[in-house]
Specification:
With 260 residues, the chain is an alpha/beta fold. The chain folds into two domains: 114 residues, Cobalt-precorrin-4 Transmethylase, domain 1; 124 residues, Tetrapyrrole methylase, C-terminal domain (Methyltransferase, Cobalt-precorrin-4 Transmethylase, Domain 2), CATH 3.30.950. It contains nine helices and ten strands. It has a five-stranded parallel β-sheet, with helices on both faces. A five-stranded mixed β-sheet has the order 6-7-10-8-9, with helices on both faces. A hairpin with a 7-residue loop joins strand 8 and strand 9. Helix 3 crosses helix 4 and helix 6 packs across helix 7. The longest helix has 13 residues. S-adenosyl-L-homocysteine binds next to helix 5 and strand 10.
Length: 260
């Protein structure tokens, strides 16, 4: 790549770069993460990282999978964090590559804590999170002057697999016009019930954006009342971002990404 005027940070042996690969489309990768891919000795990557992104790595780099895909067993979070520590202690340059942004519902903070406890130096390289990049590819603004001055990112799923108890659905419902929900498809019915009970209108627009930024992207526009039925009827699958709120209505006019 011809980038003569850019000064990239030094990737020191024995350090870890915690990096975001973006939501899918490899061209959304940042130059910093691309640089990390070129310089790393080892790349520890997650399930949602596109193979074409891994294809940009230095061919000499070792690529290690750390996640759940294609029926392979999941790797425990403690094991992954410890693996990063031991690779760094072997004086490797370790690129920890996660889907989206590493600090958005991505267990990046837990990995940082383990690295700090082990005295390993690290750098955090942001990526485009699905809740922003996915909306852009669906032609849905995250904010618009005419509809919402605030937005809330929520996980629909706790580490234990349930709908999060520490989310105050009542306050969110009243205070945040636009809700962007990650990992929400499994509990969509319960989320809808909580929001309607807290006063959100059944007719409120909802978008289900599946496999955003990839060739398989599909957007289903529905309403809060109808969303679970339309989810099963449409057959769209995770990974999926759910958007609830007035900006969804822009989709009709702004939709621009039409993969075949
Ligand atoms: N760190 C990631 C999020 C990890 S949690 C980020 O910043 O994007 C995983 C969830 O992210 C998925 O369940 C889904 O809700 C969302 N997600 C990730 N990639 C996606 C994609 N390409 N399309 C739609 N949703 C996606």
């Amino acid at each position: 790549m011809n980038t003569p005027d850019l000064i990239f940070p030094e990737f020191h042996p024995g350090s870890v770069w915690l990096a975001g690969a973006g939501p899918g489309d490899p061209t959304l990768l940042t130059l910093a993460v691309h640089h990390g891919l070129q310089k790393a000795d080892v790349i520890v990557y997650d399930a949602l990282v596109d193979e074409r992104i891994l294809g940009l790595a230095n061919p000499a780099a070792i690529q290690e999978y750390a996640g759940k895909r294609g029926g392979r067993p999941s790797t425990d979070q403690t094991d992954i964090s410890q693996k990063l520590v031991s690779l760094a202690q072997e004086n490797k340059r370790v690129l920890r590559l996660k889907g989206g942004d590493p600090m958005v519902f991505g267990r990046g903070p837990q990995e940082c804590e383990t690295l700090i406890a082990a005295g390993i130096s690290f750098r955090i390289l942001p990526g485009i999170t699905a809740g922003i990049g996915g909306l852009a590819y669906a032609g849905i603004p995250v904010t618009s002057r005419d509809t919402n001055a605030a937005v809330t990112f929520i996980t629909g799923h706790t580490a234990g697999g349930d709908i999060p108890d520490d989310v105050d659905w009542e306050s969110l419902s009243k205070g945040s016009p636009t809700l962007v929900i990650y990992m929400g498809s499994k509990h969509l019915g319960r989320i809808r019930d909580r929001l309607i009970a807290a006063g959100r209108m059944g007719a409120e627009p909802v978008a289900l954006i599946s496999k955003a930024t990839t060739e398989d992207q599909k957007t289903v526009v529905t309403t809060l009342e109808q969303c679970t039925e339309d989810l099963s009827r449409s057959g769209v699958k995770a990974p999926m971002i759910i958007v609830i709120g007035p900006t969804v209505t822009y989709h009709e006019a702004f939709s621009w990404f039409c993969p075949s």
